[in-house]
Write a structure and sequence with these properties.
4 copies of one chain form a homotetramer. Chain A is mainly alpha-helical. In chain A, 76% of the residues lie in helices and 0% in strands. Chain A contains 5 helices and no strands. The model of chain A has no long low-confidence stretch (mean pLDDT 97).
Chain lengths: 135, 135, 135, 135
């Protein structure tokens, strides 16, 4: 979102050596993935075969919660703590991997799972890129 | 975000007479506003004059929480309940109004407050448009 | 929770004429209801008859999100805004009413719905009591 | 909270070999810590010396977000994934450690920080106990 970059640009203090592009991409990927997972859980609920999608729904809900928390932590720069950022990004990458795999496994049957799996994979990759950039 | 529209397009059941454009705009405005408010609270924390910005920070935090919850409620369509949607949208519009006014009052001094105030006003308007569309 | 009262007791500024007992009860009811709704959605997912519980799951998820946001807003006192508090409490009462009714309608069949419906009704009542106390 | 145990007791399927007492204790510790951290951030905002507490506020906000997400993930049992649970618990323990240390460093000056630091340490310990119980 444009606003993510705009807010980062107007942060009043030094951001340290952070990779700004990787940070912006990861915040946006987290918010996108959280939305996709919330909507995918609901779309799965509306499928006639919902009984076969319960693991997918649960993974969607976890991934939405972890991505939302990660997007918030990454949006803060005051009193930055690399260890905490890294632990949160690892949890987020794990949630996105689990949800991307689960949604991906029935992506051919449900278009919402295909789109959600792609959002999960983008977010997992954005988390791993940012972890690498943290050094 | 593109994904918001894509997820709505792939919802497997009928969406009723919902105004799709207004719904997508409102979900995206909620997520954008939540990010702007989270980042603005943090930017205010880093200002030397933080002691004069404590009301702004508090309003930012409330607005971020209410917008995030509203974005989630709006991303669900199964078992839709217009009364609940309306009450949540009213709370979100109130939070955005309060935060837009507060941030707007020092928009000339802090660029992050100016950007955040605009996000709040867009979100308040998007909520009101969707409330009107609910009939 | 004991911590809710302890934190309120140590707030460093004046709390205005707030009804402390009603505030503490409402914060705790919101957190309890959010937990019950999150767990009830998951328990419904694990029922063999999940296909008949999709409206319940959706209502649970909404109620959990709105209660969590409300619990946070109520935990803040700096720069207090009665209009925003009231709007958020109204939305929370509406979410709890919807979920209490839905869970209550199959409380005899599912014990988790019975317990969750009670948590919803306690929270709805706590919200209404606090709204009345706001004057 | 009593409701946490009641909801776990009524989960309709097998919970595997999970340590129920450790799970309940960890869910409740997460919710308690999230509330304490939200309230502590707000109490810090109201201190005259807020400018010296900005790192504490930021750490409080992160810890509240991570604890809230962790409490939700732990409240779900359907389609359980030990790897994801472990990664989320590690992030939560890291957030609680950071916040417990920060709040603990001015616990003698601010009673709200003392109470919050204790909630953080209880939650960190509950996370580590549950991680150990996961095997």
């Amino acid at each position: 979102m444009t606003v993510t970059a705009d807010m980062l640009d107007t942060y009043p203090k030094d951001l340290g050596g952070i990779d700004r592009a990787a940070l912006i991409a990861c915040i946006d990927a987290c918010l996108e993935c959280a939305q996709a997972c919330t909507a995918c859980a609901d779309a799965c609920l509306s499928e006639d075969m919902v009984a076969e999608l319960v693991t997918c729904i649960r993974t969607n809900l976890d991934c939405a919660d972890v991505c939302a928390a990660t997007g918030r932590v990454l949006s803060r720069h005051t009193g930055y703590d690399a260890n905490l950022t890294r632990a949160v990004l690892e949890a987020c990458a794990a949630a996105c991997k689990a949800c991307g795999d689960e949604c991906g496994s029935h992506a051919e049957m449900h278009e919402h799972c295909r789109i959600c799996a792609e959002a999960c994979r983008r977010c997992e990759q954005a988390c791993r890129t940012l972890i690498a950039a943290l050094g």
